[in-house]
Amino acid sequence: MIPNRSFYRIMAGAKSVYAKQCFDEGFIAADWNINQDLSGMLPDDWREFNKRFIPVYLSANPDKSKVAAGLACGMLHTICKGMQLGDIVLTPNGFGQYYVGEVVSEYFYFPSHDLSHRRKVSWYEKVLFREEMSQPLKNSAGSIGTVSNISKHADELEQLIAGSQPPALSHSDESVEDPNVFALEKHLEDFLVANWEATELGKDFDIYSVDGERVGQQFPSDTGPIDLLCVSKDGKVLLVVELKRGRASDVVVGQIQRYMGYVKEELAENGQAVRGVIIALEDDLKLRRALSVTTAIDFYRYQVSFKLVKG
Q1: Residue 165 has what pLDDT?
Q2: pTM of this prediction?
Q3: Are residues 54 and 90 in the same domain?
């Protein structure tokens, strides 16, 4: 295992249509209609890149929103600069498999429709089969968007790449008092996204989508990823959703306010309001006191249950 390397799932074009070309020619790439050489214009901080290139993106894509622009520029920066030499790329090939390779070059520009901004990749002979992955890894590797950082599954990915199956249950899972509840809580975000339309929030809000693809899950901001970024069905309100397993404390109020500030300053269109929702199993007195003096943040409890019913 190589320490500290990161893992990324990257789509090679819409629905990864260019995956075979990338594999055959040894690169990974993106474009987003920013048709200029970015050499010398890639700061370490993606926020500086976004500030400079969001206007460029919007000029080339006038029908897109500021949310779409921020997301596209952030992902482009990740491919061009954020990925380090030695990091691992997974690219789906459309057959339930992922090409796997190692980033072996810095950024270079190759004028080409949809594939201009490139990094060389040394692809492995071995592909990864989706069916071999744990459900959490399947969820991350199958997430919407061109770029997804899946480094939280590094141990499992290292074992899969090495040809061995990871253990089905980690020791931390075994030590939980109620493993059924813990397992459900662990996948709270994925469950909420999958069942969004059936929730109370789903009546008035949609998880933010771009070109029909949900991009609002783990939306990047300058203070960390937002669990869910949603928009009201009439488009007038952007909603920041923060999920907390177990009990939420008043600390989460400051956290969600930072996210809301980012959304208000960087993403909201003229006239769009910004609200927040905290979802947790329980609250406490400190949280209730903090929320009592803000009108823009609501609190929801979730319930976790598991039972077997004899047929």
Answers
A1: 62
A2: 0.73
A3: yes
Instruction: Give the C-alpha separation, 253 to 246, whole Å.
Output: 15
Residue with tokens 């929320």: 291
* pLDDT of the residue at 167: 52
122/185 same-domain check = no
DSSP string over the chain: --TT--EEEE-SSGGGTTHHHHHHHTEEEE-TT--S--TT---SSHHHHHHHHHHHHHHH-TTS-HHHHHHHHHHHHIIIIISPTT-EEEEE-SSSEEEEEEE-S--EE---TT--EEEEEEE-SPPEEGGGS-HHHHHHHT-SSSEEE-GGGHHHHHHHHHT-PPPSS-HHHHTSSSHHHHHHHHTHHHHHHHTGGGSTGGGTEEE-EETTEE--EEE--BTB-EEEEEEETTS-EEEEEEEEEEE--THHHHHHHHHHHHIIIIIPPTT-EEEEEEEEEE--HHHHHHHTT-SSEEEEE----------
| Range of the structural domain that residue 249 is part of | 179-301
Q: Between 233 and 164, where is the model more confident?
A: 233
Both 39 and 80 in one domain: the answer is yes
pLDDT at 306: 63
Q: Same domain for 118 and 34?
A: yes
Are both 55 and 124 inside the same structural domain? Answer: yes
- Over residues 133-151, the pLDDT tens digits come to 998 888 888 877 788 899 9
Same domain? For 23 and 53 the reply is yes
Same domain, 67 and 185: no
56-65, 167-176, 198-207, 219-228: lowest mean pLDDT where? 167-176
pLDDT at 56 over 90: yes
